[in-house]
Amino acid sequence: MNESDPHDHQLRVSKIRNGTVIDHVAGGQALNVLAILGIDGAGGESVSIGMNVPSDRLGKKDIVKVEDRELSQSEVDVLSLIAPEATINIVREFEVVDKLRVERPERVVGVLSCPNRNCISNANEPVDSKFDVVDDGVRCVYCGAIVREDIADHLSVA
Ligand SMILES: [Zn+2]
């Protein structure tokens, strides 16, 4: 590890053996992070959460550690909708082996449900929800409905 790495302080939270550490989540968003990743405990994952931990960058932040699961880049990209500042560390045998950047995807499929009840994505047809990511939120590809700050309320993942 490079001594001058400005991210050294993040590594101290990585005390899990194998898995993913999601750091710099905005304070209070940890449970939404779990929801967007489809983690509800039913999968048997061991999850630890730090909420409203003091942070230089964010004031207060949440930290989520998921053991024995490595997030994919596409999962991480969806996280950007609710945790744009997040840093993701993949841990193996207590060492950070990879850092993923959170980037806003151009489109999210099957993750959010449309607020418009009459939208075809809410009909009983096998149509995946599709939202384009726009500057101020996400926009339904089918009906144009826009979801802004309450994105986490529209998660369709279990
Ligand atoms: Zn729609």
From TrEMBL:
Q: How is the cofactor bound?
A: Binds 1 zinc ion per subunit.
Matches recorded under Pfam families: PyrI, PyrI_C
Give one GO biological process term: pyrimidine nucleotide biosynthetic process
InterPro entries in the record: Asp_carbamoyltransf_reg_N (IPR020545), Asp_carbamoylTrfase_reg (IPR002801), Asp_carbamoyltrfase_reg_C (IPR020542), Asp_carbatrfase_reg_C_sf (IPR036792), Asp_carbatrfase_reg_N_sf (IPR036793)
GO terms (molecular function) for this protein are: metal ion binding; transferase activity
**Location of the Aspartate carbamoyltransferase regulatory subunit N-terminal domain:** 11-103
Cofactor(s) in the UniProt record: Zn(2+)
Has the keyword Zinc been applied to this entry? yes
Give the quaternary structure. Contains catalytic and regulatory chains.
Q: What does this protein do?
A: Involved in allosteric regulation of aspartate carbamoyltransferase.
Q: What is this protein called?
A: Aspartate carbamoyltransferase regulatory chain
